Amino acid sequence: MLNAVFHTSVAHLRDLPEDSLAEVAFAGRSNAGKSSAINTICNHNRLAFVSKLPGRTQLLNFFTVAPDRFLVDLPGYGYARAPKSQQQAWQELIGGYLAVRRQLAGLVVIMDIRHPLTDLDGMLLDWFKPLGRPVHVLLSKSDKLPRGQQTETLRRVRKMLSDQGIEASAQLFSSLKKEGVEEAEGLIRRWLDLAKKNPAQGE
Ligand code: GDP
User: Fold this and answer.
1) Which residue, judged by its Cα, is nearest atom 26 of ligand 1?
2) All domains of the chain, ordered by start, with CATH?
């Protein structure tokens, strides 16, 4: 398990942590299961609920997983009732972060397995593509579908991604059933250049 603690919330790009070595960002539509996924990967019940506190939903929320290495919870997108001005502020903050952040090692995109690759997911992936950073898709809430449909959806999503020229890996994930946790954690550790286990710390 990754051991994470809340570090800071950032509203402006100028306030990004200075002494960061590597970061993995999490993006997804509101309600896709992003907070649950972060909590599950970090084996922590309430960690990413920081990001749901009033006033924090539109911020970049940083969690430390090792010295100077962070998970970054990006604001959920596609909240239909959000006013245009707020949607624009969201785009500027997230877009700015993803575009300028040198330390960004990879992007995890969470999609509800029942509604994968929505228009907004596609826009994000298209826009992110030229930046040349790795992308990994978590098909969340996989427990909501029978096994056969899970694997069929995974196959279909992989094909759609490659048809669109998007080089992203994808996997099934369930916070409820704790499925796909090791696979996701392993990838995040590799991206952050963290060893799998640290016997000295008894992890
Ligand atoms: P976020 O808005 O993307 O951060 O989504 P949340 O993590 O808050 O989850 C949205 C809703 O989906 C909540 O009601 C969660 O309980 C539910 N949910 C999240 N992950 C799972 C999962 O793996 N399985 C099931 N069945 N429900 C989930």
Assistant:
1) 141
2) 5-201 (3.40.50.300)
* Cα atoms found within 13 Å of the Cα of residue 112, Cβ hemisphere only: 11
Q: Which atom of ligand 1 is nearest to the CA of 30?
A: 2
Testing ligand 1's pocket by substitution, the residue of 30, 34, 36, 137 carrying the most ligand atoms inside 8 A of its CB is 36
Q: Is 41 helix (H, G, I), strand (E, B) or coil?
A: helix
For residue 48, give the ligand 1 atom closest to its CA.
Answer: 4
- The backbone torsions φ and ψ at residue 33, rounded to the nearest 5 degrees and listed phi first, read 110, 20
Q: Which helix (H) or strand (E) holds 107?
A: strand 104-112
* Farthest CA pair distance, the chain: 50
Is residue 44's pLDDT more than 70?
A: yes
Residue with CA at minimum distance from ligand 1 atom 20: 33
Over the stretch 23-32, which tens digit does the pLDDT of each residue have? Answer: 999 999 999 9
179 Cα–ligand 1 center, Å: 14
Query: β-pairing, 22-28 with 60-66?
Result: unpaired
The whole-number pLDDT of residue 203 equals 44
pTM: 0.94
Distance 36 CA to ligand 1 centre (A): 6
**Six token digits for residue 38:** 């972060």
Amino acid letter, residue 172: L
CB 106 within 8 A of CB 148: no
